[in-house]
Predict the structure.
Amino acid sequence: MVTNCRKSECVVSFRLALAVFALLGSVFLLCAAVTVTHRPRHRRGRSNKNTNNNDDLEAERVTYDQYVETKDPRMRSSTSRFCNDNLNDLKSHFHSFYLDKGASNCAACGERGAYWICGLCNVHLHWNQKGENRQCKVTCAADYHNESMFGLLKCDVKLLNQKKKDWKPPTKEDMERNHKHVSKLKRKYMESMEE
């Protein structure tokens, strides 16, 4: 402590110390404030996922335009991916499967080892696989051509503007919610076709 100072000098040094502490405090507050650029990259721009808002759920689903584009492709050579309404269409897709020389990632589940290509859709899918997980692998071809699974598969990640590495297999609850959502889109599509 300063013992040999005049009263006016002590007041000035005390005020100076207060100003320094105030300045340091404001610098500390500025450093403590979290802005978008100070967040880790994988957390930037994300909202809180704990909110079960219908708007948030709708934002994570496919839109009507995406549904129509997939249901009725504009190119003459391509056929619709969906085969729910007509088993003959599904049969023609299954008959078009052919074996590829090299394995690729499955369009439905994203796992490696898909040697089969749907000739009409031109995508690799698990089909008629041997091994432990055979039931799961066979359903990849059916899920890809199922309207209710539209937006839940690994290949649909692009439509939802998500990264492939963030994709997770859908749960039963996800499938039920998506089925209701796609049913609404289908009803809207059928009403527009009647007009």
